[in-house]
Design brief:
This is DUF4157 domain-containing protein. With 148 residues, the protein is α+β, with helices and mostly antiparallel strands. The protein is 45% helix and 11% strand. It has six helices and four strands; from the N terminus they run ααββββαααα. The chain has a four-stranded mixed sheet with strand order 1-2-4-3, sandwiched between helices. Helix 1 packs across helix 3. The longest helix is centred in the last third of the chain and has 17 residues. The chain is globular. The termini are far apart.
Length: 148
Amino acid sequence: MTPAQRLRQIANVLNLSTPLGLAVAVTSRSRLSRGPRGLLIASGYHWKLPHAGAFTVGNVILYRAPYGVAGTNPVLLGHEERHSTQYAYCLGLPFLALYGAAACWSMVRTGNPGLANCFERQAGLEAGGYIESNNRRQDHPAHDRIEA
C-alpha cells in the first residue's frame, strides 16, 4: 500500500466508517475478504437497500455479487475506492449525511440520485454505472444520416 492508502485505511477506522461497514457486512451475512489497497470486499450482500450492485462504507465495499466475482471489475472497484477516500476526507460518518443531501439535490435536478451528485461525479459516473444522458443526437439529427 502507498502511504496515502495506509492513511485512508487508518482514518476510516478512527472515524468509525470502516467499523460501521464491517457491522453492515456481518449483520447482512456477507462474506468478507481482503481486497487491494487496504480495502475489504464483502460479497453476497442481499438486503434490499441500497439498490446499487455495490456500495462503500469506510474501507468496506459491499457487493451483491457472490464471492469470487465481487471485486473483480477494476473499473467499479476504482469507483468504490474513490468513495472510500471520500469517507476519509469527510471525517467518516458525516459522509453519509453529505452524500444523502447530494443525492437529494441530484434527484431534484435530474430525477436520478447520481447524475448531479458531486460525490458520484468525483468518483466517476460511468464507472459507477450512472449513464449521463447526452441529447446531442436528438438536437442534431443530421449527424445520424449517412450521405451517399
